[in-house]
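Hey,
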Amino acid sequence: MRPKQVHNWSYSKNSNGYIAIFDKHLFKELTDVPEQAYFDLSAKNTAVLQPTFEHLIQESKHTDQLSQKTILQGISYILLQLKRLAQEAPQNNTFPSKDLLKFSKLVAQNLGKNLSVAHYAAQLHITVDKLNHICKQHYAQSPKTIILEKKITEAKRLLYFTDLSVKEIAFRLGFEDSSYFSRIFKQKTSLSPTQFKST
């Protein structure tokens, strides 16, 4: 997941596993992060990685400098193994193009602006039709919808984690009319911004 992304997990009763959350400063030191958003691990591969996670959990209980270094090395090892497994996995042959990843990054960097799909296409040096095609191919959504979804996701984060008013959030996300923002938000979430903030 991207930094600050609003998210939620729904677990079945027999769920088990590990969640790793990286500090942004630590993440900059990690160069071998798999590019794939997700992929499945076989039982064999899970059995190989599980002891390393267990060792890292035990290591986190120590407070010396060696512990920090050991944890960093352990995380690097896990990421290297995951990167190898991701490359070997046959189902990972159809991942989003670099243009789509760049588009996603550009949208995230410009959430406060009202930029057109044509503007993004020009930034990527591709046609609007090409951008439409890759967005629909991988996300089954138009670029315009993806932009709006990202704005709504950021609105959720701001409503949940800040004391900004609905009007301030609407303005921050490039909506000139806060009433229009509220209508769009309710269409997408079934709740008004005020209702979402109070849940």
